[in-house]
Amino acid sequence: MDKEKWRLTEELVVLIEKHISSDSIIEYDQKLTDLSGDSSGGRQCDVVIRTGKPPRETLTIVEVQDRGTPFNITTFDGLYDKMRKVGAQHLICVSRQEFPESIKKAALRHGPTIRLVTLKNIEAGDFPINFWDNTIVCEHRGIINIGTVAHGVKKGEIPMQKPSSSSSKDEIYLLGEEKASIAELLFQYIDRNKLLLTPGLNEVAVSVPFDDRCLSFVSSDKLIQVKVDFSATVEFAYYRLPLKYMSYNQQDWNHPLAWIAEAKGTVNGNEVTIKGLVKPTGDGNYGFNVMEISPGYKLKVTTAI
């Protein structure tokens, strides 16, 4: 059994369920108390979904199997027993393989208590919608250089001093309710002003006025309002990554609960994986909603250049 592959499938299921049950609390790899007392250390559950609030909270456990063989009835019965012993009201079984008829019939006898879900790969040519030539486009933006940063304060404020930190990633600003670094100020300025970057090196002049309510710790422990001016050299490039597709299908549902698209490739020398949901946009088209970019890489994902 490939434990790493199994773990990645479990994490993918967590991401999907978070979008399906956005109002629920979804936890990965949890131990729940065994109410029967048969297991003093608790019972491990792949995914736990908590819906509603006490005293009307509903508990669902999700069990994932990613192997070359389908669920068997013994495994299924064991998971149903686990559901009862941890006090859950629902069980979702997720498999890469089709469920045997015996398990489908058993699940139907339990009604909505048990849901069977298959996570299946879809060949690009079999996908019901033609997406962007089966690729997505990523925009890479990298900072080559940041020039001298000039701070201004309003009359009567504490005179500015040089910040104690020299890193462009240190969050020494507060813009709105979000902490920000000088690098984040740069990219927010580019996005808010819809500056057009071209492939290669771009010179950007940034000016954050007092009106933007930018606060900073750079002169003392006290937050003061500042205006910020600096210039930067930004590297910009497009990368086109191939897509592969999966469907998340529930036994008693006529249509897939979700379509998932995954892109893998090299961006600026880094191996990147992007996972997202394919969802209708409401205007007859479909969009790619990014769920995760790993390993922690910041990218802007588009559908076309």
List keywords for this structure.
3 domains, 305 residues, alpha+beta
How is this structure best described in words?
- There is one protein chain.
- The protein is of the alpha+beta class.
- The protein has 3 domains: 120 residues, Trna Endonuclease, Chain: A, domain 1 (3-Layer(aba) Sandwich); 78 residues, no CATH class; 94 residues, no CATH class.
- The protein has a 16-stranded mixed β-sheet that branches.
Task: Provide a concise account of the structure shown.
Helices cover 17% and strands 44% of the residues. The protein is α+β, with helices and mostly antiparallel strands and 305 residues long. The chain has a 16-stranded mixed β-sheet that branches.
What's the pLDDT, averaged over the residues?
85
Please name the CATH topology of the largest domain.
Trna Endonuclease, Chain: A, domain 1
Q: In one word, what is the shape?
A: elongated
Summarize the main sheet.
Answer: 16 strands, mixed
Distance between the termini: 41 Å
The succession of helices and strands, N to C, reads: HEEEHEHEEEEEHEEEEEEE
Q: What would CATH call the class of the largest domain?
A: Alpha Beta
Strand fraction equals: 35-45%
Oligomer: single chain
